[in-house]
Specification:
The structure holds two protein chains of two kinds.
Chain A (H helix, E strand, L loop, with lengths): L10 H14 L2 H35 L3 E5 L5 H9 L3 E3 L5 H6 L5 E5 L3 H7 L5 E5 L7 H25 L24 H4 L2 H27 L3 H5 L5 H30 L16 H28 L3 H11 L4 H9 L14 H12 L5 H26 L10
Parallel strand pairs in A: 1-2, 1-3
Antiparallel strand pairs in A: 3-4
Chain B lengths: L1 E10 L2 E11 L4 E5 L6 H8 L7 E6 L8 H7 E4 L11 H11 L4 H15 L14 H13 L5 E5 L7 H16 L3 E6 L2 H7 L2 E6 L2 E6 L1 H8 L4 H9 L8
Parallel strand pairs in B: 3-7, 3-8, 5-6, 6-7
Antiparallel strand pairs in B: 1-2, 1-4, 8-9
Classes of the chains: A mainly alpha, B alpha/beta.
Chain lengths: 400, 244
């Protein structure tokens, strides 16, 4: 009895179909990759924006209550503040202490020499006691300082008029804003986080798969019987790599769709920001980020094939997720003007391109080509390295 | 037909196999008997071209695993020690996966799986996911998966590990079936009962080398013992790591 007649085998397709089917049956993988990220990120973001804007708004609209020390020294200032809706409170015994203990956000102190300097027409000293390192006090500090500045300016103008000087003399330069930003381009200010979220998703989307199909298979000891089949190992690796890429892409596409659905709910209507993402823009973003999914899948597979167990692989992965954050953080802290050469730097170029796509300006085709090309070259190089790792005999040995 | 001459394999300073030679003929069951850590699994891994030998020669039906790895894999059916089933796939899907990797058509696979399901008695669980299978069920699926492409040579690493009496009986019957069909079967084990019940030829491996080789009668004769067990102990020098 001899072997059945056998065709030329395409291992890549067989492995890809099996890994895809098997992983779609894994609730943990499907949940983490296809549900958690795409739902969590956009909603987390929306919730955050809602929370901060409503808290800011509340602080800006709330009646300003300011304890004033020496209010009797500056009756006209007090009147002005009250006209502006500020409630003047009785002074605390120890103003520094109440600010430090956060009982009060701001305390005003009119210094004793105030009346004398006021009458002499010299700058009369007022102290604003506050702790600007406490974020919640920034709105109150701003409001108090703004009121004081307006009062100072009004009084100054009156004094000039009394001396027979035209108030315009104070305004040596007439500054006018010519705003060239559009409702669309302002959206990037609100969506600066999007490249960042997408970069992380490109990596996390394939993470479970890379670990399960390599380190996990090693741990379950199914890699050894798999390698006894008459299929070159590089084909097995490519099949697994394709499944990893597929899941990463699916995760990215779902994240984008979920952002498209959720963005209109953002409370930004009055700022003149157009937050809609057109289908064309979505497809462009997907095209730009796709090579990153391949790069990430290769890198993750490469690392996972070093690991002996799922657990060991996990410890590498938590470090890898930091990689896509580096360019995003640099870009957020230090925005730069995109130039051609930057498109050849993977991860960096995608950050810039996604920004340009959201702004709604046309992006040169060469930029796309360079970004996709350079990222693919590095991704495929990593895949080739992973394939050679698969050929080492010791890849089958698990932790035991 | 397997011919192995003077195999050597080291991992760093550890000499796992140093000088193993034996023959396994068609229509016979050859048992590699030895204590745990004697080098049986490493020897088998070299046979199915997972590990390259440092030294020595292997021929399986005239093919060299170093040169004709793909050809040899087509003629081999292997059940490794770790069964390595995919828990999220059904037994049938596990078997089909390997059939597909062997380039079988759907029709060929269906026919073959029907046959194996009957021979191995897997009717009750062939379409269930292997998550939660008993050891006996796992071994059956692993065997069916290894046999899906009807290989001429069958290698079994510790096939009865973890099996209960009934499952062991079923397994032994199946291995005897393979012998009747003219396959060349090699199994490794540390259980004396197993070789006594099954094997035509016994290769005793200890500390990476062959301690003795022959039929049960020859081994008893050579050691001047009246029972197989005494023969093993005399030939190896101790009974450490062996199960009666």
């Amino acid at each position: 009895m001899s072997g059945v007649k056998q065709r030329q085998v395409n291992g890549i397709g067989t492995v890809f179909r099996k890994e895809t089917r098997e992983n779609f049956r894994d609730r943990r993988t499907v949940f983490n990759t296809l549900l958690l990220g795409p739902i969590l990120f956009p909603f987390m973001f929306i919730a955050l924006v809602w929370f901060t804007t409503s808290a800011e708004q509340e602080r800006a609209e709330k009646t300003l209550e300011v304890p004033v020390i020496g209010a009797e020294l500056a009756p006209s200032l007090m009147r002005f503040l009250e006209q502006q809706g500020t409630v003047i409170k009785a002074p605390p015994v120890d103003p520094e202490a109440v600010v430090r203990s956060q009982e009060e956000l701001v305390v005003l102190r009119i210094l004793p020499e105030y009346p004398e300097k006021w009458l002499a027409g010299e700058p009369a000293p007022v102290e604003v006691i506050a702790d600007p390192s406490r974020q919640e006090s920034s709105v109150a500090i701003g409001r108090v300082k703004n009121l004081l500045a307006v009062y100072g300016q009004q009084t100054g103008l009156l004094r000039l008029q009394l001396r027979g000087v035209a108030p315009q003399a104070m305004a040596a330069v007439d500054v006018r804003d010519v705003d060239l930003s559009t409702a669309k381009s302002r959206a990037i200010l609100a969506m600066i986080f999007l490249p960042y979220v997408l970069m992380i998703t490109a990596f996390t989307g394939g993470m479970h798969l890379a670990m399960d199909t390599t380190a996990g298979e090693k741990e379950r000891k199914s890699l050894e019987p798999l390698f006894i089949n008459p299929v070159p190992r590089w084909q097995i690796m490519v099949g697994k790599l394709l499944t990893t890429t597929l899941f990463a892409m699916a995760s990215l596409a779902l994240t984008l769709v979920s952002f498209k659905l959720v963005l209109p709910l953002m409370p930004v209507g009055t700022f003149g920001i157009d937050l809609s993402l057109s289908v064309t823009a979505l497809l462009q973003i997907l095209l730009v980020i796709a090579p990153v999914a391949i790069l990430a899948a290769s890198l993750l597979t490469l690392l996972a094939s070093f690991a002996k167990t799922y657990r060991e692989a996990q410890s590498y992965m938590s470090l890898v997720v930091m990689i896509p954050l580096i360019p995003s953080i640099i870009f957020m802290a230090n925005p730069i003007k995109p130039e051609l050469w930057m498109m050849s730097v993977p991860l960096f170029s995608q950050n810039l391109l996604i920004g340009e796509i959201i702004r709604g300006d046309g992006v040169p085709a060469l930029w796309y080509a360079l970004s996709i090309g350079s990222t693919l070259v590095i991704g495929l190089t990593l895949a080739a390295v992973a394939a050679t790792l698969y050929n080492r005999p010791r890849i089958i040995f698990s932790g035991s | 037909m397997i011919v192995v001459k003077n195999l050597h394999k080291s991992f760093g300073d550890v000499k796992a196999v140093c000088g193993v030679s034996f023959e396994a003929r068609d229509g016979e069951i050859t048992g590699l008997l030895g204590p745990n850590g004697a080098g049986k699994t490493t020897t088998l891994r070299m046979l199915y071209s997972l590990l390259p030998p440092d030294e020595g020669e292997i021929r399986i039906d005239g093919l060299d695993p170093g040169k004709d790895a793909m050809e040899i894999k087509r003629t081999l059916g292997v059940v490794p020690d770790g069964r390595g089933l995919y828990n999220r796939l059904t037994a049938r899907e596990n078997i089909e996966y390997f059939g597909e990797l062997h380039g079988m058509t759907r029709a060929q696979m269906n026919e073959r799986i029907d046959h194996l399901t009957k021979t191995l008695g897997m009717e009750d669980f062939i379409d269930r996911r292997t998550e939660g299978f008993s050891q006996g069920q796992r071994v059956k699926v692993a065997i069916a998966r290894a046999m899906v492409h009807s290989p001429q040579t069958v290698l079994l690493d510790e096939p009865s590990n973890g099996l209960d009496v009934m499952a062991t009986r079923a397994l032994r019957n199946y291995i005897l079936c393979l012998k009747r069909d003219g396959h060349s079967v090699v199994l490794s084990t540390h259980i004396m009962q197993e070789v006594a019940a099954l094997c035509d030829r016994i290769v005793i491996i200890a500390k990476g080398a062959v301690a003795a080789d022959g039929t049960a009668e020859e081994l008893m004769e050579r050691s001047g013992s009246s029972s197989l067990e005494d023969a093993f102990v005399k030939l190896i020098g101790s009974d450490e790591g062996l199960l009666a």
